[in-house]
Amino acid sequence: MAETATEHFPVLILGGGSAGISVAARLRRANRSLGIGIVEPSESHYYQPLWTLVGAGVFSPEASRRREADYIPAGVDWIRDRVTAIEPDAKAVRTEAGRQLTYDWLVVALGIQIDWNAIPGLAEGIGTRDICSNYSYQHAAYTWECIRSFQGGTALFTMPNTAVKCGGAPQKIMYLADDAFRRSGVRDKSEVVFATPQQAIFSVPKYRKTLEAVVARKGIDARFRHNLIEIRPDAHEAVCELVDSGERVTIPYQMIHVTPPMSSPDVIKQSPLADAKGWVEADKHTLRHPRFPEVFAIGDAAGLPTSKTGAAVRKQAPVLVANLLAAMEGRPLTASYDGYSSCPVVTGYNRMMLAEFDYDGEPAESFPFDQAKERYSMWLLKTQVLPRLYWHGMLRGRL
Ligand code: FAD
Fold first, then answer.
1. Which of 94, 343, 349, 380 places its Cα 20 to 30 Å from the Cα of 33?
2. Which residues in 159-294 belong to E strands, given as ranges?
3. Max intra-chain CA distance, the chain
4. DSSP 8-state code for residue 396
5. pTM check: above 0.70
6. Which tens digits make up the pLDDT trace of 383-399?
7. pLDDT-derived band at 131, boundaries 50, 70, 90
């Protein structure tokens, strides 16, 4: 039977992923006596950026997973439950197990929802019949299975017409697959196709130029303005709608890597916190909700006009924490997020280009060299350095 209980938290954080844990750790470092609760149902915490490399056979899925319990900061209450309703007028949240949690301050960090059912054939086919996706811990290893056993024909990679987390991930796995096909000797009897509703391979001009050259060098058939609307698993066919004409085209494939449609979590869409697109409304610099001043938003769930990435979360967390602490003390909110986001675009085994940019699409680079170049050193950053910085730095509130 469902429990009924009410608990109160001075600060309540919804979601214990990259953003929720980063905020909790920073708040604890700033004020050890602050009462903090995190609502998170999962026993495991995932470093999702590694899933690209799981799909490429470089890491095992387990390398991306750790115990959530080991990352809940000491002194923070972990409510192992799922949020089912957010009621900001009552400063309350309801959970699956029947709890009512009340708060003085709320941080919404629920991530993005993957809508597997939005494409007919996808939910039933994923993980079978050569349909794979790195967008799931459960299925990322099957991507490698498909790439490794590919014998030639068409390898199709898709991007949806929705917001996604890590906009570069749909093409990173394609570049790695192309490289793997060359190594296994099947590339000359294959066609590598990228079907995307977008008009260009990347939005920031500086990095777009490099990626256009990568696509040309690899002989990839990039089909812009193509939106995947159906998969026929048994027939090995994908149906795309042409964004401009509405015409439908069928692409037969031997393997397909799908980046599924995504949207704001339903619990946010259904709450008064949502903006017109369903994300948590937030001031793009202070991260504070404009209508509910005791609410802040961070990460993929936040309605911010930037790319949804863990790298963005790393820059948002210190801003949110500084502004939350200021708000608690009645001080003006002076910390400002500039829209920084980053995309480590892996272009092959041993090559990577680190794109970093802000709200204006201007490069916001960390290194004193031309980051639009593909480099081996950046591959080492992706495979060796960033995972360590995530587990030991970002999630501990140190970075
Ligand atoms: P998440 O880390 O997803 O956390 C959301 C949390 O909310 C989860 O723990 C979830 O269990 C919890 N939750 C959901 N619903 C509820 C509920 N109802 N109640 C309670 N809790 C709930 N980023 C990069 O910076 N670089 C990369 O190279 C990169 N590559 C990627 C490759 C792939 C294949 C994928 C999938 C992602 C990649 N990302 C990358 C994106 C990055 O992982 C996310 O942007 C980041 O995790 C966002 O953090 P978040 O806390 O907002 O969401």
1. 94
2. 190-196, 221-224, 226-232, 237-242, 248-252, 255-257, 262-263
3. 66
4. T
5. yes
6. 999 999 999 999 999 98
7. very high
Residue 5: the pLDDT is: 76
What percentage of the chain's residues is helix, strand, coil (to nearest 5)?
Answer: 30, 30, 40
Cα–Cα distances in Å, from 245 out to 23, 24, 227, 249?
A: 45, 48, 12, 11
Q: Is 311 in the pocket of ligand 1 (CB under 6 A)?
A: yes
Place of tokens 């998969």: 231
Candidate list 132, 146, 166, 240, residue with the active-site label: 166
Determine whether the shortest distance from the Cβ of 110 to ligand 1 is under 6 A.
yes
* 62-114 tens-digit pLDDT: 999 999 999 999 999 999 999 999 999 999 999 999 999 999 999 999 999 99
166 tagged catalytic: yes
Q: Does the CB atom of residue 15 touch ligand 1 within 6 A?
A: yes
Q: Tokens 């602050």 appear where?
A: 34
